[in-house]
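Hey team,

Sharing the AsmA-like C-terminal domain-containing protein run so nobody has to redo it. Sequence (675 residues) first:
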Amino acid sequence: MKKLAKYLLGLVLILLLAGWLLLSVFDANQLKKPVLGWLNEHTDIELTVGNLEFNPLHPYTLLAEDVQLGDWFSARKVYVQLASLSPLSGHTRIATLDIIDANIDLDNATELTLPDNLANITLDELTSTNLSLNWQGWEAKGTDITIKHWQPRQDGAWQWWSDFTLNGQLRQLTHPALAMAQISFHGQVTQQQLQLERIQSRLFDGLFDSGLTLDIPRQEITLTAPAFSHNRVQFDELPQLASDWTLLLSRAQFTDVSITSPKLTSNGIKGDIRYLEWQAGGLPDARGQWQADEAVLDWLRLDKHSGELLSSREQLGLSINGQAYEGAFNSELRWIPQQARLDIDSLALQGNKLIWQPGLYWPTPDVRLHKLNISQAELLSLDSELALSILGADLFISDLAWSAGQWRPLSEQARLEASWNEVAFSNLVARQGQAKARLDDTELTIEQLTTEALDGQLSVSGHLGRYAPHPGKLLLEGQALALRPLSRWINGDRGFSGTVNISAALDGDLQQAKSWQGQLAIDGQDIFIEKVGLDSWLKSRLAEDYARARTVDPALAALDLTQSDGFIYQVKLAGPVTQGRWQLDGSALQSVRHLLALRGNVDFAGGWQLQLGAINDAGCRELAIDLTDTWRTPQLTLHQPKLATPCKPWYSGDVLYPNGGLSGPLIDAVRKLGE
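Structure output:
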């Protein structure tokens, strides 16, 4: 009996050992094909598996290799360990789910339809190693993540954003406008919000440290106390926020940040943003301050400066002060993008050396200048078409706007005041000048413009209408103005020198010369003109026979005139201006040998009706010169009138007969000299 029991016990042990050995060598891949076929047929999962490892002695553990789910999920290995499986109650609890070397494309992901006995799924822990993820332009690589206490499925419905805790790291996270690396994070998902208590990473070659909340239902991203350090931000276009999304920042800190873009470049930025709310399609609502070593916006360059940001969705407000162009500046600015308008509430420049570059332009079509104050500034033009330099300039402008290609006033206080030590335009130089002007809706009023110009004194005042035909009034006084600088500036065929005094009081429409009225006087001394040999020309004409009036070719007369140079001791041209015609009765010029008197008028529209006379020492005209028609095609007539005895003076003005002139009748004296 004892032997029988012993044999039976041995048989049982042998059977148990044989069963264990049989189950140990069980090949789960034999069941793979029918099981996956049934799943794909009844669940629309589209699942494929390369290799399965499963031991019936450990029924809650499974290792799958080369897993493919549709066209949006693949993994080299998936390890599953169930904590419990209750098909009748529809609840499955997964103790551990490990995903190794997986790729997920969420843009192509489809809803997973599972049988009713998998209505509720709970994960105690999900881990991934070297996971790659793609979603709406975002790409994450080398993701190692751990998720705990997650129930992704409840009552037959997927709830991907149910509560769970997570921590992990990413090797790289990229987007067309963003690149991050070496990311570490920890936090949780609560009420469909991803709340990362802390995320740290490399960002644009620098460091990033922040709290982050991602609220997908509300489409909001919140950064709490973000710190940016040594970042080098580069972009070709201004970053745009995705449509319907909102970015929120609070207590942001910046340290040694730089920005490089086609229009804006700035280095050494540090500061903070106390609050920012940015929605797509508008400016951010923000408060902050910053300092920077330099900034370049288009042609504008700022050196070490500080600023304060006060922005709303409608306008961007900036207060900036610091150093620029070897001087100091202080500004209050507002940018209204919907109107493409820049409001300069206040701009003060002191001791700046400004450079005018070729092709310089103002990038905004509408500028409102409420207050501009410039002191002791310099301007140098590098544009070959604008040979201009200004030294020691002071300028004050208030309530002026530039739009539609013209200036206009913003209020009744619109005015300009300026002074300068020196203004040089090509060869013309003006020193110690002052100017005051006002602008209203109809006209520009020059209250004062005085300066040392052309080695003399010049003053201008008056007003000019802003709209065609531009009615206005001009008062001009010039004393001892040198002609040599003007000759060099014109750089014409004939050089000239000397000094002139000029006085003008004219009013009329700028574009209608016939409307000009007033007075004009020019008084010149010691004037030298190249290729205008007036004395020799008059001498030749007096020696010829013009007893009868003859018309002379003006081209030949001009050619004869250019055979020598001319010198004029004194010239006085004065008279009223009526309907655009300058009446010159009583005017004359004194050369070395002759006195030439003028009567008639010059039409500012381009013509003349002048009678000139070579006057002898008795004031009588011995050579009559009539100059008529237009300036470009004049008619010239010469005549030697007979002199009565005694002769009747033709000129008795203030210009005296030259000391070197011939005595007595001119014609007789010239012909005797010829004999």
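The longest helix spans residues 2-24.

Ping me if you want the raw files.
A.
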